[in-house]
Design brief:
Helices cover 76% and strands 0% of the residues. By secondary structure, the chain is an all-alpha fold.
Length: 144
């Protein structure tokens, strides 16, 4: 009995064209396959050094490995930050890669700034006649 009811509703939907519209929506939302004849290595090499061009490659319909390589090739914090924002909602792998690279770049910048401040402090101590031992130990531990 239930089979007859479900068959009737399914056939009614098909005749109304709803199932055809639903299948066209699903095929329209699926991403296009990347073309096989593109030389991605050459495109990555041509875009190296230009974070905006690398971001365009990563946003395009390139294979996953190519998009990850494009994010890995980015050098500036701004480019990595924009890539992290771009992929936050729809591509977790690329987002994770961009986020890790951004965090690494920020940590590197902060470490360089701290090292420069330590060197300036040590240079200041060299000008003094007597160097306080606690200050020397403090700079040594901060450098470590």
């Amino acid at each position: 009995m239930l089979n007859k009811i479900f068959k009737k509703t399914a056939s009614a939907q098909e005749t109304n064209g709803e199932s055809l519209a639903a299948t066209s929506k699903t095929t329209a939302s699926t991403p296009k396959k990347p073309p096989d004849n593109i030389d991605w290595q050459a495109r990555l090499e041509a875009a190296s050094g230009d974070d905006s061009a690398l971001l365009l490659i990563a946003k395009g319909n390139a294979p996953l490995k190519v998009r990850q390589a494009a994010v890995e090739a980015m050098q500036s914090e701004d480019g990595l930050r924009s890539a992290e924002r771009e992929f936050r909602e729809h591509d977790r792998r690329i987002h994770r890669e961009a986020k890790l690279r951004l965090e690494t770049k920020v940590a590197e910048r902060l470490a360089r700034a701290e090292a420069a401040a330590l060197i300036a402090g040590a240079t200041e101590l060299l000008a003094q006649v007597q160097i306080p031992a606690n200050r020397f130990v403090e700079i040594d531990r901060a450098w470590q």
